[in-house]
Design brief:
By secondary structure, the protein is of the alpha/beta class. The chain contains nine helices and eleven strands. Helix 5 packs parallel to helix 9.
Amino acid sequence: MKKKAIYGRHSVEEYILKNGSNDITEVWVKDSFHGEATSTFLSNIPNKSIIKKKDIKDIDRILKGVNHQGIVIWSQSNSGKSQIKDFNEWKTALEEAEGPFLLLDRIQDPGNLGNILRTAECMGIQSVILTDRNSCGITDVVIKVSSGALNYLNLFQVANLSRVIEELKKKNYWIVATSDRGEDEWEDLPEPERIAIIMGNEGEGAKRLLLEESDFVVQIPMHGEISSLNVAVATGIVLDRIVNR
């Protein structure tokens, strides 16, 4: 099985806290990393022989172009992908899951997806449904940027969000989407626990079909000269407006 790198202080700490260290084969720590910070990250790894001091240049060479912060763990499990469940598992989980749900339509930038997942977890979202086509999936960058959120979210991957919407409506959930042409009022939305929120692709937004299937289509109020928001920022605004009403 291919090894998976988890890097960055928050991601490493949350991974070890949630999963333990049984599947960790190696830990790389930059040779200038010492003191209390090191002991905090590594105290939960009983097998100290797998901890290797590395020159920062060697870590940079292996993990090109990422902000690893001088600490990397290598895991035998396919972390990220192994955390994603398929549609049939989601239908079963729906019986016990609690809303609001977050449905992501074709998010392609790993930085955006990582930030969305981090924000969703902070806002109390428990379940996120991703499309399996035209989506970046769970990459190393997503794991890093999400800062450990992956360890606390239920992630499901589906081929067709319309089927998810159909199942949610059967369970009496209301579907909420955002669009620059949305006309519904935020004040009219149901309680957060009965809502599923659709956030769409960076360039196109949510598909027209998904907008048509939504019970509410709202618009984020804009007051500046620029008329568009980054999807990760927009998700944060939408979740805040819904969860913290």
